[in-house]
Amino acid sequence: MLRISRKLLIYLSSGAAHKPIRRSAMEDGAQPVFTFGIIADIQYADIEDGLNFLKTRKRFYRNGVQLLRNATRRWEEQRVRCVLQLGDIIDGFNKSRDASQQALDTVIREFEKSSADVHHVWGNHEFYNFCRETLLASPLNSAARAGSGSDLIADDIYAYEFSPAPGFRFVLLDSYDVSLIGREENSEKYKRSVKLLQEHNNNPDLNHPPVVYGLEQRFVKFNGGFSREQLLWFDEVLTLADQKQERVTVFSHLPVHPNATDPICLAWNYEAVLSMLCSHKSVVCFMAGHDHDGGYHIDESGVHHITLEGVIETCPDSNAFGTVYVYEDQMVLKGNGRISDKVLKYPSGKHL
Question: Whole-angstrom Cα distance, residue 64 to residue 170?
Answer without folding.
Answer: 26
